[in-house]
Amino acid sequence: xxxxxxxxxxxxxxxxxxxxxxxxxxxxxxxxxxxxxxxxxxxxxxxxxxxxxxxxxxxxxxxxxxxxxxxxxxxxxxxxxxxxxxxxxxxxxxxxxxxxxxxxxxxxxxxxxxxxxxxxxxxxxxxxxxxxxxxxxxxxxxxxxxxxxxxxxxxxxxxxxxxxxxxxxxxxxxxxxxxxxxxxxxxxxxxxxxxxxxxxxxxxxxxxxxxxxxxxxxxxxxxxxxxxxxxxxxxxxxxxxxxxxxxxxxxxxxxxxxxxxxxxxxxxxxxxxxxxxxxxxxxxxxxxxxxxxxxxxxxxxxxxxxxxxxxxxxxxxxxxxxxxxxxxxxxxxxxxxxxxxxxxxxxxxxxxxxxxxxxxxxxxxxxxxxxxxxxxxxxxxxxxxxxxxxxxxxxxxxxxxxxxxxxxxxxxxxxxxxx
Length: 419
Known about the structure:
- By secondary structure, the protein is an alpha+beta fold.
- It has 12 helices and 17 strands.
- The strands form 3 sheets. Strands 6, 7, 8, 9, 12, 13, 14, 15, 16 and 17 form a 10-stranded mixed beta sheet that branches. It has a 5-stranded antiparallel beta sheet with strand order 4-1-3-2-5, with helices on both faces. Strands 10-11 form a two-stranded antiparallel ribbon.
- Helix 5 (123-130) links the parallel strand 6 and strand 7.
């Protein structure tokens, strides 16, 4: 890329590395890994919002350049006068751009079982590994022990926080897996003094909500998003059918839901029957529109909103991309019914014609959360028996970029954000 002669002509101390994030970038996903690597090594990164697809800028370092070469990331070595030119362009009040300084790599955790999870079971784990971004796995025991205070960022594995095991046990498939999971979860619940798995999962959800309220950053996808809010709303009632916990649901459960406890959703109707299924699996509520949407794959797209980078910094960071139209993908929770979303929530990606939101964000106390519908941005209809998505075949995936925007978001320098 940059020869020694070129660096000498610039003056090594007066050079920066620009990682473009527009169509010229060979590997968008690994570019986030480079930005994270720079932060882990004690240096800062400027995130150039809306400049060439949300590019990254860091001071020149031979190790950073070498890392870009090793990982196959497109980069440019630029002199200080070029940096000044870019800065002037971005700071122009008439353009929708801004510079956000990333200061420190967040401490990363993924809420997921440590055993029995296939690589294809979680898109976030897939992309973190592909981008070479380090993370720890935590699950119920770690959360209940209070270990979340060790982390800045948490992703929720596609979990069923209602204690209904995604209603797997009555679908005529995966019965052995369901029974094994049920036994493990019941043993953990007993260990921590809970009579039911649903009560343990509620305590876990409440601990995660507290983590977020205290300043943590939360990303949930698929059923990890809607079941999380359903569990919180049902804290004072029983929505779990007998096959899962030994007794039937409260006949008055719907009227006892408390939507003040949820992050994103309100006024939804729960489905308490163990035998209520849809095309994507067990149904929990009418938050997810998987079972009512009639959209062919070739027509399944959602559009990212344009936000003011200088004023709406948070959603601008979370929607940085080289493409504003993202192809849809299904999951246990594919998309969210806009009529069930609280007015305080920011919708960042939607299919307007279907009245569904795919990508939403909000604040809770000192923290921030993002919910993203669907399972795998490069696998339209996930099948657990399929091989995992090979991200080397999708290095420029706009759908996966949205996940990685959330990864870097906590590293941003704290300033008054106008969202």
